[in-house]
Amino acid sequence: MTTAQIILDADFTLSELDPRLFGAFVEHLGRCVYTGIFEPGHPTADSRGFRQDVLRLVQELGPTTIRYPGGNFLSGYNWEDGVGPIEQRPRRLDLAWLSTETNRFGTNEFIEWCREARTEPMLGVNLGTRGPDEARNLVEYCNHPRGTFYSDLRGRHGYPEPHGVKLWCLGNEMDGPWQIGQKTAAEYGRIAKETAKVMRLVDPTIQLTACGSSHRDMPTFGAWEYEVLEHTFDEVDFLSLHMYYQNPLNDVLEFLGNIEIMDRFIREAVAVADAVAAKRRSAKRIMLSFDEWNVWYKARGSQYQEPTGWPEAPRLIEEAYEFQDALMVGGALITLINNADRVKAACLAQLVNVIGAIFADPGGPAWRQTIFYPFRLANQYGRGTVLRSQVRSKRYSTKTAGDSAQILVAPVHNEGERQIALFVLNRGTEAPTEIEISLRGFPEIKRAQAVALQGHALSATNSAGDPEKVSPTENPEHDLKGDRLMAKLEPLSWQTIVFNY
Fold this sequence. Notes:
It is a single chain. The chain is an alpha/beta fold. It has two domains: 2-11 and 386-500, Immunoglobulin-like (Sandwich), CATH 2.60.40.1180; 18-383, TIM Barrel. The protein is 25% helix and 28% strand. It has ten helices and 24 strands. The chain has helices at residues 52-61, 107-117, 132-143, 149-156, 185-202, 223-232, 252-256, 258-280, 323-338, 372-381; strands spanning 2-17, 23-25, 65-68, 92-94, 99-101, 120-125, 167-170, 207-210, 238-245, 287-295, 343-349, 358-360, 366-368, 384-392, 395-398, 402-405, 407-414, 419-426, 433-440, 447-453, 473-474, 478-481, 484-489, 493-500. Strands 21-20-24-18-17-14-1-19-23-22 form a ten-stranded mixed beta sheet, with helices on one face. An eight-stranded parallel barrel has the order 2-3-6-7-8-9-10-11, surrounded by six helices. Strands 4-5 form a two-stranded antiparallel ribbon. A hairpin with a 3-residue loop joins strand 15 (395-398) and strand 16 (402-405). Helix 5 packs parallel to helix 6 and helix 9 (323-338) packs parallel to helix 10. The longest helix is centred in the middle third of the chain and has 23 residues, at 258-280. The chain is globular. The protein starts with a strand and ends with a strand.
């Protein structure tokens, strides 16, 4: 058995953790919307077509924000198509995903669904085929009280009260050659700045996110961020980051090395944003919105089949998540929490069916995928102040990320609840690891409890036939003595340990 030590001190803090770190993403892609969250005629659907079985799982997962309507879909979307009487809405060719968009579900339905899901909407504006005028009109439609063309149009559509949407994205992945209306950094920076200006004139209370690079391996990464922020620095609050994790070599340690790459990505984006601030001699700090992240590799590449014949809601990018994917998601959550001083929003992409934490069969059942559990637990207990931790553990080397620690930790202190939550990933592959957790500067610890994802085959998945094959185990072995806890971590496991004082 290997050993490790974790030291926490109440006075060594990083930042308040913004609950928006635990957001998700709904795009008009594949079956995320249609036969995902929305399926009129499903046995559990309400009068609006909202699947109640899916809605209950979303409420359990608890995403604090939902980004909508895309994604690549956004760059060819006319928001006006998705409002008003459903029978009058046009059917459109969705060029992003080679599908037919019926527009039966649009902005107002999404806002209603968010209220049912007890979550906050994050809307995107199309800067691929459209621009500032359409964006300001959408803000007026959603947020202006009444007495203007678009606010009164919302009233005639059955929504007299404003939606009050506060979080907005200025386009999506505009550097990508796959994007409808791809732009250079200068082109995007200019249109994003002017769009932000008119959106804020309509509603000065909104917060805006500018597009960063589509991923860290883009050839323009760094230069793109700098140029875009040169234009938009004074107008935006966030810079977006996107990253998906792959395991094409079927090597779990190389796979989990992506956690370090994610951390570097965040720090590099922060460095560029602060360089723009330094050039301006500005005290303002651009925060980060990591508004697309997840595991995605089995349902892509040579295995991905583009739809033909313009189908409605085809099966696209439907990952069957394995236990090892849950470990990767748990590690990514640790990284996001440990960067809470600059990452103030994030979205697990996506929510249902399409690389989703929830899977739903058309007309049939819905169940939790393996990645559901680390997100739910981190979201449930990740409230309060992120602490700095001192971790001493065995190290190992990977080609993906170089030298890496076996034990990764993110601690959150919730003073109001008199609680400390510790999220721990053990990347050891052979024997269990015994950890000693020392708590300094806290009142007397009265209780400790733990929930772990452990003991499963790396390839184990959940399914309609066995929906709880991979699920958490409560109260793994631990021994609390004063301000110290001795705990045993199984190899390749992710654990939430909660202390109460």
